[in-house]
Amino acid sequence: MEGRRFLIFTSMSWEVRNLTEVLFYLTVQPLEKIVPVLAEKVVTSGEKGLLLVEDNRECLRWDQLLWTYSTASFLPHAREDQEKDGAWVSRQPLLISSTSSQANHASVILNLKRESPLITAEVRKILEISSVYDDLVEKYKNYGALHPHFNLQMWKQTKDGKWYKESMQQAA
């Protein structure tokens, strides 16, 4: 994201960073249809993604789904629990994990967990994805209170699959 920047203190020095963007996606369609498309956009843009899920069972389920969701494209990814060595994991364009370990140094987090992820300096975008409005509104309020310098946007999906941006006043 170009544009707004802020000053952050890291490792005993001040750095100028891009503003972290948090996009809240309220889905009508099943997550199994939405998440692969968003993950593919992350990977094809050259970013590294971290798909955060609740537990190891969900890691396995999403791993299977991402291998088979489209016959027309290939989405390279791995599960963090498949770790062969740290270098192998760090090269993965999309890592599926139940922890916020950031083993692949992702700049984009696709969060399906109930809680918000651990945010490291390399994270520039967080996608909070859910079909439960109240969950997203609660997260929206928490991000606004804890990280007032973050750029927050709420996106809602219509029944026909189109997306529109909801004003922040309506969401909060």
Give a short summary of the structure.
The protein has 5 helices and 10 strands, in the order βββαβαβαβββαββα.
**Uncertain runs:** none
Gross geometry: globular
The major sheet is characterized as: 8 strands, mixed
* Class computed from helices, strands and strand pairing: alpha/beta
Strand order of the largest sheet: 5-6-4-7-8-3-9-10
Secondary-structure element series: EEEHEHEHEEEHEEH
List strands and helices in order, with pairings.
Elements: E1 5-10, E2 13-18, E3 21-26, H1 31-44, E4 49-52, H2 56-68, E5 78-79, H3 86-90, E6 94-97, E7 108-111, E8 125-130, H4 133-146, E9 151-157, E10 163-166, H5 168-171
Parallel strand pairs: 3-8, 3-9, 4-6, 4-7, 5-6, 7-8
Antiparallel strand pairs: 1-2, 9-10
Question: Can you walk through the features of this model?
Answer:
This protein is of the alpha/beta class. 29% of the residues lie in helices and 28% in strands. It has five helices and ten strands. An eight-stranded mixed sheet has the order 5-6-4-7-8-3-9-10, sandwiched between helices. It has a two-stranded antiparallel sheet with strand order 1-2. The longest helix has 14 residues, at 31-44.
Question: What would the keywords be for this entry?
Answer:
172 residues; alpha/beta; eight-stranded mixed β-sheet; two-stranded antiparallel ribbon; 10 strands; globular
